Amino acid sequence: MSAPKADPMISTAALAERLGAADLVVIDATWFMPDGLRDARAEHAEQHIPGAVFFDIDEISDAESALPHMLPSPAVFAAHARQMGVNPGSEVVVYDAHGLFSAARVWWTFRAMGHGAVQVLDGGLPAWVAEGRPLEAGERSPAPGGFEARPDAGLVRDLARVRAALAGRGEQLLDARSRARFLGEAPEPRPGLRSGHMPGALNLPFDEVLESGRLLGPAELQLRFAGAGVDLGTPIVTTCGSGVTAAVLALALARLGAWRTAVYDGSWSEWGALDDTPIVTGP
Fold first, then answer.
1. Is the pTM of this model over 0.85?
2. CB neighbours (10 Å) of residue 133?
3. 33-50 pLDDT, tens per residue?
4. Residue 234: how many other CB atoms lie within 10 Å
C-alpha cells in the first residue's frame, strides 16, 4: 500500500510545477448528476489539464449492482487504473470541473484500493482556468501502467456494518446530504427512496466544508465538524445519496488528520430503498 500524502489537497501552483513528470498521473474525475444535461466525458474532450486522463465513475463500478457507481472489484479497478497509466509508484492528482465534488470520490476509491499517493486539486478545473493555466483537448491513451489493487477494507462500509454501527458499535454516522433531505422535508432526487435519515446519524451538508469550490482550511473545518456534533476522536463513517459527497466529508476529515474515515458505499440509494431499514424524520 502506497503511503498517503501529508495533505490530501494539492495547489494549482504545485501541480503546474509537476506537470509532465514521469511518475505523475492527472485524472479528470468530473461527474454530473444523471439529469442528461451535461456529458462529463465530452467536456473532458473539449478541455482538460494537459496530460489528464478521464475517470468515468459510472463505468468503473460494480456492473452487477443495481445501486449507482458502487465500488468495482479490485481486479476491475486495477485493469482501468493500468489503462490510465497508473503504476504502484505513481503520484495521482484528481480534479473535477465543479471545483470540488466528484474528485473526492475518486480520491477515496484509489485509497480504498490501496493507493495512498493520491491528492485532490484545490479548486479543481475552475481554479486552473481562472489562473490562465494551460489546457488541451482530445483524449489520451497513455502507456499501460502496472497498478495492482490492495484493497483497504477499513475505508469501506457495507449495509451490515452500518447496521452494527447504529446498534452502538462505536462509530459515528455522518450524513453529507442537505438538511432538508436529512430531515425528510425534501424528496430524494432518485425515485423510489424514502425520505429522512438513519436514527442517531449526524448531518453536515458537504457544501458547508467548501467555499467557492475549495476545501476550507483546518481551523474552519474544525468549527464545522464540531458544530455538527462530530467527535474527531471517535471513528466516523460518512454517507450521502450515492457515495459521492460522502467522500467530500472524508476528504475534509483527512485534512484534519482523520485519515481512516470510512464511506458507506451504498449510502441512501441503498438504505432508503429497503423496507427493513429504520428511518426517522425531523431533527
1. yes
2. 16
3. 877 689 999 999 999 999
4. 10
- Count of residues in the chain: 283
Residue 191, classified by CB atoms within 10 Å of its CB into exposed (0-12), middle (13-18) or buried (19+), is exposed
Domains of the chain: 9-151 (3.40.250.10), 154-271 (3.40.250.10)
Segment 252-262 shows an average pLDDT of: 97
Question: C-alpha cell of 217?
Answer: 482550511
In this predicted model, what pLDDT tens digit does every residue of 131-165 receive, in sequence order?
999 999 999 899 999 999 999 999 999 999 999 99
Residues 23, 133: contact at Cβ < 8 Å? no
Is there a contact between 138 and 45 (Cβ–Cβ < 8 Å)? yes
- The CA distance from 88 to 145, in Å, is 8
Least confident of 33-47, 181-195, 206-220: 33-47
Active site residues: 240
Distance CA 283, CA 280 (A): 9
What is the rounded distance in angstroms from the CA atom of residue 81 to the CA atom of residue 11? Answer: 23
The pairing of beta strand 9-10 with beta strand 24-28: unpaired
C-alpha to C-alpha distance for 22 and 188, rounded to whole angstroms: 44
Instruction: Give Cα separations from 125 to 101, 108, 117, 129, 152 (angstroms).
Output: 11, 19, 20, 6, 29
CA 30: distance to chain centroid?
11
> Cβ distance 258 to 15 under 8 Å?
no
**HSE (CB half, 13 Å, CA atoms) of 36?**
0
78, three cell numbers = 486495477
